[in-house]
Design a protein that fits this description.
By secondary structure, the protein is of the alpha+beta class. The protein folds into 2 domains: about 220 residues, Sandwich (Jelly Rolls), CATH 2.60.120; about 45 residues, no CATH class. About 30% of the residues lie in helices and about 25% in strands. The protein has 7 helices and 12 strands. Helix 6 packs across helix 7. The relative contact order is 0.17.
């Protein structure tokens, strides 16, 4: 099955390119795709992928969670492929993190983002750190409200679900939550933002979500498979690095300026971050927190 009006060569479609450019890094936007029947996205292929990935790259827990779960959820055990193949009856939620570790999935991820980049065209310093995640949800699963650091194309492969993308209640709340996260806290929130936009995702549909926007997911009464294709930009990576430096400064009982307050200060903090990490053997940002 291919989304109406799309060819197999058009992996991801942004219908209103001007509107997407205006919303980029600020607001969610509906998109379409033609990946529903892709051979790498069947249950059998995902089961093989789950067993091939390092154990740290597979997260599983029971699917029936409250919308608010600030501490996360306990892990489920057993062979990852078994969880995939029994997803219709086992009541689990599962994610395969960093699927680009497997060459075939890295190729697919790059093909999708290369097409999206014809619209983005290097904005905010261009795409960096491309990563992909596969989400499997049992019927009626809830993903609690949380935020992520990446630009995200969430593409629905099987089943249907409501993706609720929230506004922060106010700038002070946003800053407090991002500081808490970078100080070592969980990305799940302990309060539900007041305003949200709901995107009904069905096979062939999807949504672009900007970094740090709170969101939560309600699955339908069928199994859901979603492909999350993510990236940073030079600007969003700088903001992450400033957040990390600010966390160190807060531990020293200082009150640092948040990212975006001063481009000159942000560049200085980013330079300090890169130099410090280069001396320690690497300058990569922290891995995604589950």
């Amino acid at each position: 099955m291919v989304s109406r009006g799309l060819s197999r060569e058009t992996l991801v479609q942004i219908d209103d390119r001007d509107a997407f450019v205006r919303a980029f890094a600020r607001e969610p936007v509906a998109v379409r795709h033609s990946l529903v029947d892709h051979p790498l996205l069947t249950l059998d292929a995902i089961a093989e992928l789950a067993d091939a990935l390092p154990a740290v790259s597979v997260e599983r827990h029971h699917a029936h969670q409250p919308v608010l779960a600030p501490g996360g959820a306990p892990e489920v055990g057993g062979p990852p492929s078994e969880t995939v193949r029994e997803i219709e009856t086992n009541g689990c939620w599962m994610v395969c993190w960093y699927i680009e570790q497997v060459p075939e999935y890295r190729q697919l991820l790059n093909a999708i983002l290369d097409q999206a980049d014809t619209v983005i065209r290097g904005r905010d310093g261009g795409m960096q750190r491309r990563e992909g995640f596969l989400f499997l949800s049992a019927p009626n699963a809830v993903t609690p409200v949380h935020f992520d650091p990446e630009h995200n194309f969430l593409l629905q492969i099987r089943g249907a679900k409501d993706m609720n993308v929230c506004d922060w209640d106010d700038p002070a709340t946003e800053q407090r939550e991002l500081d808490r996260y970078h100080d070592g806290g969980h990305r799940n929130l302990d309060t539900l933002p007041k305003e949200s936009s709901t995107f009904r995702l069905v096979p062939g549909g999807g949504v672009y979500v900007p970094p740090w926007r709170p969101h939560w997911v309600q699955n339908s009464d069928a199994v859901s498979i979603s492909l999350s294709i993510t990236f940073r930009t030079a600007l969003s990576e700088r903001a992450e690095r400033v957040h990390i430096v600010n966390s160190h400064l807060r531990r020293a009982h200082l009150s640092p300026r948040p990212p975006g307050s001063s481009p000159m200060v942000d560049r200085a903090k980013e330079t300090a971050y890169v130099l410090r990490n280069r001396l320690r053997g690497g300058a990569k940002l922290p891995a995604h927190k589950g």
